[in-house]
Amino acid sequence: MKFFGGDIFIVWITTFITMLGVGFIAPIMAIFAQTLGASNLEIGIIFGSFALARTIAQIPVGVLSDIYGKKFFIVCGTFFYGIFTLMYSFVSSVLGLLIVRIFTGIFSAFVTPVAGSYIAAIAPKGRLGEYMGIFNSSITLGFGVGPFVGGLLADMYGIKTPFYVCGFLGILAAIISYAKLKDIAFNENIKKDIKVSNLFSYEFLKNRNFLSSFIINTSYIMINSGIIAYLALYAIMYGISISQVGFIIAATNILIAIFQRRFGKLYDKFGNITIIIGVFIVALGMYLLSMSTTFLNILASLTIVAIGGSITSNSTTSLAIKDIPIYRKGEAMGLFTTSINIGMLIGAVSFGFLADILGIAGMYKFSAIFIILIGTICYLNIKK
Predict the structure, then answer these.
(1) Which residues 6+ apart lie within 8 Å of 380 measured at CB?
(2) Pairwise CA distance, residues 43 & 165, whole Å
(3) Which of 151, 183, 215 is the last residue of a domain?
(4) Cα separations (Å) of 47 from 163, 165, 199, 347?
(5) What is the pLDDT of residues 323-361, one digit of tens each?
(6) Where among 183, 212, 237 does a domain terminate?
(7) pTM for the complete prediction?
């Protein structure tokens, strides 16, 4: 398989840069919003607006990319994502920040699901899991490294520096995609069969395999949101610093990105059984995390969670789109990747509520039970 210099590399680097930008901004957005006078509620709305905008935009963008080709949306998405990220530096009010945040959410939705469907379309038969593993590694690595690098840039050169760097990288990705990426053309008859009126179709959720994969992925993202939102608070109780927490998040994501292709091959070799194996590995890691009180224990626990999550996410993504016709993979990926946004929105709120009742350690224990129950029920629902 030709990776460097090929279309898969162009798509990989484009997705990586987009997720790197999301990660760059994550640790500084609340602080930047406070400098504009935002309240805690307004900060929550600003964060939620990004995920909501992505959720609304992803499905129609996926459908339209099937009709008009992938390249147009990838190029436009990266370019305008870069432009609107640069505009963060020029906003002077909470409302302005909210508006820019919404537009960055919309244009980021032009990239990830379309890029995923591009990879799925070019994947050789019997190697879909491997190819989706490569694609998912760009998301994991970008979002994993982003917060660490973004925090360093903000500390060293000022809080607006990550906006400038991210904006420049987005525009650079657009230029590379425009110059190097080949478009995927569809048969004219197939184009006529796809109706633009179905931009918000949820038809794929009627498919048992797609629905089961969607729910499992949403559940895993919910748990991951609980980790990200409350890990720092949990770690501080045991004398672990914020920088050490940042290192843990970055290190686990980098490790998984390195092995994601191999995890994808597991699905190609062993099939759907890898989904439930991954679910139980996640549950084990969450249970160990609930009892971890040292830096090394937390690092080891989250590494186990990340390994299980990587196996599960690669497998569920592959299963969800495996039997989708090539000319509708964009539509399917657009719908499937909304599970990420839904999981982030529901997870942070619901597990935060549980943390108030059970404590953070208790919430992590509940997460282990939750993912086993949901994962097992959905796995049994998958068509063999």
Answers:
(1) none
(2) 23
(3) 183
(4) 16, 20, 25, 14
(5) 777 777 777 777 887 888 788 778 767 777 788 888 889
(6) 183
(7) 0.72
